[in-house]
Amino acid sequence: MSLTHEFQVEFTQRSARVKSLDLHPVNPWLLVGQHSGTVKIWNYKLRRLEKSFAVTNNLPVRSAKFMAQKDWIIIGADDMKIHVYDYNTQEKVKEFKAHEDYMRNVVVHPKQSYILSSSDDHQIKLWNWENDWSCVRTFEGHSHYVMQLAFNPKDDNIFASVSLDGCAKVWNLQDSNPIASVAAHEKGVNCISYLTREDGLYFLTGSDDYTIKVWDSESLSCIKVLEGHTNNVNAILIHPHHPLIFTVSEDKTIRIWNAVTYDL
Fold it and tell me: At which residues are the WD repeats (predicted)?
């Protein structure tokens, strides 16, 4: 596969530090969560700003996700709250305190009326937006900040989490305790993403030890270590149509790996 390395779209407007990105599943929109407490929706085809939401008073927004089935955006911030906005009307749908410390990640369940959130309070919480945003369950087991969550693409009752405690854990939505845990890295783990291949299901973890590890989701054995970054690895993205893995690091590089051979 031939790859070209050039910008297709560049947004030149000055902005605060970007903490979160999400793509709308239908519209050509990029959702940007900023350190300033603002969330913006950019049209990447027309290269223009569509909407802007002043969410917090200069407290960082660390996670913002589209929930297209309700025309909402779900936001987790350093005010320890979940914020929900209608992205068409820009009206606030809901705001409530979710955790006892800064929030790190929010993820939307692909089918059910659930949101997962994680925090520096070491907890993960499951929220039901159809039941007045009640907390259905609290998941405990990590001993440091819970940085990112990911639903299993083969079984959406299962999700995985990673933490600065160096562990990756696997959970069932019906159980507050982890069903599996692995000491994934010697340093903190910042990101996780599932990878579906013809030979099975895997997940990848990125760490402050500068590496990305590939794990068999059944045996929790590490089958490959991807090395090359020279600073903390903060994000992993799996291409939806091609066998490509994108990794982002504080070394100011994006690296593209073959998801079959794991070559760079």
Answer: 11-52, 96-128, 139-181, 182-225, 226-264
Break the chain into its structural domains and give their ranges.
9-97, 98-264
CA 13 to each of CA 40, 54, 60: distance values in angstroms, whole numbers, following the listed order: 12, 17, 19
CATH assignment, 9-97: 2.40.10.480
Q: What is the dihedral of CA 69, 71, 74, 75, to 10 degrees?
A: 160
Closest CA to 105 of 156, 34, 161, 25: 161
Amino acid (1-letter code) at residue 249: S
3-state SS class at 74: strand
- Kindly state the average pLDDT of the residues 203-224: 98
Contact 37, 61 (CB under 8 A): yes
Rounded to a whole number of angstroms, the distance between the first and last alpha carbons of the chain is 12
Sequence-distant (≥ 6) Cβ neighbours of residue 25 within 8 angstroms: 66, 68
Query: 179 Cβ partners below 8 Å, 6+ apart?
Result: 158, 170, 171, 172
Band (pLDDT 50/70/90 cuts) for residue 13 is low
Is the domain covering 98-264 a CATH 2.130.10.10 domain? yes
- DSSP H helices, 68-211, are none
In this structure, the number of other CB atoms found within 10 A of the CB of residue 224 comes to: 14
The conformational region for residue 10 under phi > 0 = left, psi -120 to 50 = alpha, else beta, is beta
Q: What is d(CA 206, CA 199) in angstroms, rounded to the nearest whole number?
A: 22
Tens of pLDDT, residue by residue over 44-60, are 999 999 999 999 999 99
- In the numeric block, the tokens 């009640």 are attached to 134
